[in-house]
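Write out the 3D structure for:
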Amino acid sequence: MRTKSDIKTFATTVFTSKWRDPVMFAGLLLLVLIGLIGLAAATGWEETLSHLESLTFWQISLLLLLSLANYGLRGIRWHVFAHRLDLPLSLFQSLRHFFGGFAMSVTPARVGELVRIRWIGRETGASPERTAPLAIVDRASDLSAMAILLAIALVFAAGGPKGAIVVAAFAIIAAIIATNPRIFSACVTRFYRITGVFPRFFVRVRRASQTLAQFSHFPTVAMTLLCGLAGWFAEGYAFFILLQWMGADIGLATCIVIFVFSTLAGGLTGAPGGIGGAEAAMIALLSLEGVPISLSVPATAVIRLTTLWFAIALGLAIFPLAERISKRGPYALEK
């Protein structure tokens, strides 16, 4: 029989080890599944299942292709950013790093995706201080594209969720801070003075922030922003056609507002992949548009499966290859 001391030791081991993030993610996923199942049961299984069964193999394939278009465009954007740092990487290498990093999307705030920086270091010898801004500017570019897309969609939508403009503004401000070397460095310095912890880490972050200036090249900004806009529009359009197939009468602009807003809202929770927050926001906003729970629940489940979970599946498939190839890199022993 386990004592309280044994249980405490076990819990401490789990939550301070490499299993912490997967355990947290599994717990969040379980809660989301319980919530979705509960909603479906409350409205009647038959109607919910009938909506799911109405989707064909080719329709699901189209949703996956639109998601793949998003990931591919963002992968090209990652390569453009790497090129601005004069990293000797081919497009294939950049795509391998970018897609493989999706396997680490299960970590809180997706910090695990920094594994891409390790792969680049092994293959090119570039230091983390030099390549870390890649992760910063990539996330900032996503925020910018999603905020602009949300703002444009709000103009054409009949109405929008309260707070959508605030979320869009917050995303743009965060993107500006993350891509401006002086502002970012000042924020890092201020945060360190408030917390007073990890001085070496903050010094390295400040040094890395100086590299952000290399991404302010106008053609680079324009091209990467277009990649982000087109990519996120593809997933918003996937949400629109999914709802049309399932019988919901909602316009394209409104669907994009709901999808982008929910994705941003989920990300603000800091949960892995926005699990829980994104689904809750999506179902709530669809309900406000008059979509019954029996339709909004399966629609939310399907779009999350064909976007977030599809990305994680791709990452899990490519991660072993990316790790194996990077270990054979000329600088692997140094990383």
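The chain has a mean pLDDT of 78.
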